[in-house]
Design brief:
Layout lengths: L1 E2 L5 H13 L3 E5 L4 E6 L4 H12 L7 E4 L5 H6 L2 E5 L12 E3 L6 H12 L5
C-alpha cells in the first residue's frame, strides 16, 4: 500500500500506477490517499471467496461492506453487498444495499439488525 498524504492518490493512480504496474500486479485505488498493489489476480473478492470456502459457506450467503474502489470486486462477489452512505456516488452501482454512514457505525447497525432477525441481540 502506498500512502499519498496530499489526497492525490486517485490522480496519481490514473496517471502513473495503473498503466505502469497493472500488467504485472493487481493495482487499485483505495480512496484519495491510498493505492494498493497486490499479486496478480488478488483482490478482496478473491480473499473473501477463500474465507467462504474455508468456512463452508457460499458467496451468495456472505455479506460485505465497502466504500471505495478496492472494495468493488468484494461487493460484486457476495449476495449481500452494502456501500456505506458516505461512499462516493460511483460506488452505489457496485452494491445491492446501502448502510448508514461509517461515521454513524453503519456497518455495526446492519450487522446488529441482521443478528436481531435471528434472535441474537448484542
Amino acid at each position: 500500500t502506498v500512502f499519498f498524504p496530499n489526497g492525490d492518490g486517485e490522480e496519481i493512480f490514473a496517471s502513473t500506477y495503473r498503466e505502469a504496474w497493472s500488467d504485472r500486479f493487481t493495482v487499485t485505488n483505495a480512496g484519495k490517499q491510498w493505492i494498493d498493489i497486490m499479486n496478480k489476480h488478488v483482490d478482496k473478492g478473491q480473499g473473501l471467496a477463500h474465507v467462504c470456502d474455508y468456512l463452508g459457506i457460499t458467496l451468495d450467503d456472505a455479506m460485505a461492506f465497502g466504500d471505495t474502489y478496492n472494495d468493488i470486486q468484494m461487493l460484486e462477489a457476495v449476495g449481500h453487498s452494502y456501500v456505506v452512505a458516505n461512499a462516493e456516488e460511483h460506488m452505489h452501482a457496485h452494491a445491492r444495499f446501502m448502510a448508514p454512514s461509517n461515521n454513524e457505525r453503519g456497518v455495526a447497525q446492519v450487522i446488529d439488525a441482521v443478528l436481531a432477525t435471528h434472535g441474537v441481540h448484542i
